[in-house]
Amino acid sequence: MENQKTSSTQIMLNYGLILGFVSIILSVANFAFGDIYRPHWSIQVVTAVISIALMVMGIKKFKEGNGGLLSLGQALKIGLGISLISGLVSLVYLFVFTNYIEPEFYTNMAAVQEQIIMEKNPNMSDEQIEMSVGMMKKMMGFGATSIYVMVISLFFGFIVSLISGLIMKKSEE
């Protein structure tokens, strides 16, 4: 039993760190190409595909190391562990990025979002735009972004590991 726990922890750590660093590489590439405030949808698709692949690989590796047996609970644990570690690595990068690399990130993002609001809603009054931007600014910042990143990461990890676990589960007969 102790061997299983060590094995699952190691798999979560390895695949979570890999996924976290891949996310950082994609973010740095996005920043280098100048698309940080309006990223192309393909970046999100590539990130999702890589995330799914790494979580499924981690769950599969655990199953192989566990004699071909896998419960749904174990799959959820592995997938959520990978997501948690990946999310934490991403938050460390986000902290460094928004404080040292691009300290005006949230200010610039607010300006871009205001422009998007005005483009999509040309009939909004100045007062309505100001209210929308004010509410949006309250939701910006490292704290709010951290919560958002972790919730999305864990929710996505839950969905992927639930589906993977249902497909790959196998118990002793």
Topology of this structure?
Blueprint lengths: L1 H31 L8 H25 L6 H30 L3 H16 L5 H13 L3 H27 L5
Helix pairs in contact: 1-2, 1-3, 2-3, 2-6, 3-6, 4-5
Description:
The structure is a single chain. By secondary structure, the protein is mainly alpha-helical. It has one domain. The protein contains six helices and no strands. Helix 3 (72-101) runs antiparallel to helix 6 (142-168).
The global form is: elongated
**Low-pLDDT residue spans:** none
Number of helices: 6
Helix vs. strand class? mainly alpha
- Count of the domains: 1
Strand content: under 5%
Gyration radius, in Å: 20 Å
Helical proportion, percent range: over 70%
Q: How would you spell out the order of helices and strands?
A: HHHHHH
Short description:
With 173 residues, the chain is mainly alpha-helical. 82% of the residues lie in helices and 0% in strands.
Q: Which key features would you list for this structure?
A:
6 helices, mainly alpha, 173 residues
